[in-house]
Amino acid sequence: MGVDLKELVPKKEITLQDLNGKSIAIDAYNALHQFLAIIRQPDGTLLMDRYGRVTSHLSGLFYRTVNLLEMGIKPVYVFDGKPPEIKELEILRRRLHKEEAERKYEEALAKGDLKTAKMYAQQTGKLTEEMANEAKRLLDTLGVPWVQAPSEGEAQAAYMAAKGDVYAAASQDYDALLFGAPRLVRNVTVTGRRKLPRKDVYVEVKPELIELNQLLSELGISREQLVDIGILVGTDYNPEGVKGIGPKKALKLVKEYGSLERLLPILKEASFPVNPLEIRKIFLQPEVTDNYKLEWREPDKVEVVKFLCKEHDFSEDRVLNAVERAIKAFREMKGRVTLESYFGFK
Asked: Contact 216/201 with Cβ under 8 angstroms?
């Protein structure tokens, strides 16, 4: 779900080319869920290999990563660890939503309504531990680093950006801003022509850059107050938020009262599933790690083909073409870095 701040956030449209030469920490689970939702057959069925193993996530991860490398972008994928205990309600909500979507998918399929079936199928994707491990193995063959977060992947990506180890965090959700990412890039893994949910309308999805300092300055608030706004609107730790309070009203209240502590006494009818101050603590003091090393290597063509084609039935011609492009992109990137180092450029 993530926190819904789109009404308040000043967006700056960019192109992937604008990220040339920059490293970005991508919320891996966020991206993989997108691939599981988007990459499907006309009837909503996921892509699978001869053994019935899902491959939609691998297809999306492989081709999107190659595209990013071709743009001169250095991606690093950050995987979720153990979620905070107070996220249990949101995890339950998501599971029930998927179960209901699965029921409606089967009903639509039985009626022969493939359009409706696909719509509901896109809401049923389940990312298993095995799928996550397959994604990590694929990244290893591509020479692309990945980081195992101790808890929330977005928190770890935000921490890496705040340290200056990467230029920005990348996710569809705005949570990375609450976790302190100085820059958030959206639509990195879904750029291109996309169909709007429940409509026969297609739009061109373009990357967006959001800078935390600019956001706070324009709104006239602190990061702590931004977190308080998020809690009022609803986060993964209190999905419902406070009834009747949207982003603009939350901003007005936080600016008027200054902090959540001063607001709570007037929100007498508001019910929080957990202590809102504990939610704030997760955003301001998240569990993160320094145990990572960011190193990009040349893709191993033999291992990529072995994994995707021999084990998972991908088209060898397509994979070879893509991996050759990735190798070329890596060598160009490495040559540019070597040249800049030689002349003392940063």
From this structure: no
Query: Over the stretch 59-113, which tens digit does the pLDDT of each residue have?
Result: 999 999 999 999 999 999 999 999 888 877 676 766 766 667 777 767 766 777 7
Is the pLDDT at 292 greater than 90, yes or no? yes
pTM score of the predicted model:
0.88
What pLDDT does residue 117 have? 67
Task: Cite the beta strand spans of 7-137 per DSSP E.
Answer: 12-13, 23-27, 74-79
- Give strand pairing partners of 12: 209
- Report the distance separating Cα 254 and Cα 191, nearest Å: 34
Specify the range with the lowest mean pLDDT, choosing from 3-7, 153-157, 286-290.
3-7
Q: Over the stretch 230-251, which tens digit does the pLDDT of each residue have?
A: 999 999 898 888 888 999 999 9
Q: In this structure, what token pair is assigned to residue 274?
A: 């957990």
Amino acid at 62: F
Phi-psi region of 72 (alpha: psi -120 to 50; beta: other; left: phi over 0): left
Give counts: helices (H), strands (E), the chain. Answer: 14, 9
pLDDT-above-90 percentage for the chain:
65
Closest of 190, 220, 223, 196 to residue 208, by C-alpha: 190
| 152 close to 80: Cβ distance less than 8 angstroms | yes
Residue 53 is classified by DSSP as -
**Cβ proximity of 183 and 210 under 8 Å:** yes
User: What is the torsion angle, in degrees rounded to the nearest 10, for the CA atoms of residue 58, residue 286, residue 182 and residue 5?
Assistant: 80
Q: Residue 309, Cβ neighbours under 10 Å: how many?
A: 16
Residue type, 220: G
DSSP lists the bridge partners of residue 40 as 46
Residues whose CB falls within 8 Å of the CB of residue 250, separated by 6 or more in sequence, listed in order: 228, 229, 232, 233, 242
What pLDDT, on a 0 to 100 scale, did the predictor assign at position 341? 45
Residue 323 CB partners (closer than 8 Å, separation 6+): 66, 142, 299, 301, 304, 305
pLDDT tens column, 265-274: 888 767 777 8
Could you tell me which residues come within 8 angstroms of residue 345 by beta carbon, excluding any fewer than 6 positions away?
A: none
